[in-house]
Specification:
Layout lengths: L3 E4 L5 H9 L5 E5 L16 E5 L11 E7 L13 E6 L15 E4 L12 E7 L13 E6 L15 E4 L10 E4 L3 H13 L10 E5 L15
Parallel strand pairs: 1-2, 2-3, 3-4, 4-5, 5-6, 6-7, 7-8, 8-9
Antiparallel strand pairs: 9-11, 10-11
Length: about 220
């Protein structure tokens, strides 16, 4: 069956999302998004959505099982609170991409701005370029792969998320440290790079994670917070 096409120059995001929440076909194409907000938000079934152009805030937010591909850039909150499924964009993402996401795979072909993966709770995020300051802030679980550089404050107050960076890293955030790269880490990194269709070798990356000094606040350590 051919994809059902929605032209946002002729219809509304509300009408598009109403169809995606109660789908009549398996594949959709969205034309002329022109920076519209909340495109393809709230999908909860295994449908595929191809968005032809740039999107605004909260594209593919709360995705649970859908496959959303954006052929362009995305504004703040891309794939925020995703539960499962896949979100890919070919361009760059603004702030807080993948924020609070519990699962699924987010692939950003270009670079991501600050706070990428903030409070991530199990999602896998692969960024083809660089990420801005305070990325993976309070990251609780999941994996983030950065093929370019990472700005200051990477992994600030991190819990158990695993971070892999191929390029340079600015000043690390509180309680984030570089860790040993073992065979199991190279194996999972190879799987993530393959899933994102990126050609890099795991040996080009370094791993970062929690030093586990901030799990329990004590007055003796108050100067570290």
């Amino acid at each position: 069956m051919e994809a059902l096409s929605f032209d946002l120059a002729e219809t509304t995001v509300r009408a598009l999302n109403a169809e995606l929440h109660d789908p009549t076909v398996k594949s959709y194409e969205v034309l002329h998004p022109d920076g519209a907000h909340a495109v393809a938000a709230g999908i909860d079934t295994g449908i595929a959505v191809e968005v032809r152009g740039h999107v605004g805030y909260y594209c593919a937010g709360m995705n649970d099982g859908g496959t959303v591909t954006v052929h362009g850039n995305a504004a703040t909150g891309l794939a925020e609170n995703m539960m499962s499924g896949t979100v890919r964009i070919t361009g760059d993402a603004s702030q807080s991409a993948g924020a609070t996401a519990h699962g699924g795979l987010l692939v950003i072909g270009g670079s991501a701005s600050m706070r990428c993966g903030i409070s991530m709770k199990g999602v896998d995020i692969v960024v083809g370029g660089s990420v801005g300051p305070m990325s993976a802030f309070m990251a609780q679980a999941g994996r983030m792969v950065v093929c370019g550089d990472a700005g200051d404050g990477l992994g600030d107050s991190i819990y158990e998320a695993r971070l892999y960076v191929r390029g340079t890293v600015g000043e690390l955030g509180a309680d984030c440290v570089e860790k040993e790269m073992r065979d199991e880490h190279r194996a999972e990194l190879a799987e993530l790079l393959a899933a994102a269709d990126l050609p890099y070798a795991p040996d080009e990356f370094r791993r970062y994670g929690s030093a586990r000094r901030l799990y329990h606040f004590t007055s003796d350590h108050s100067g570290s917070y």
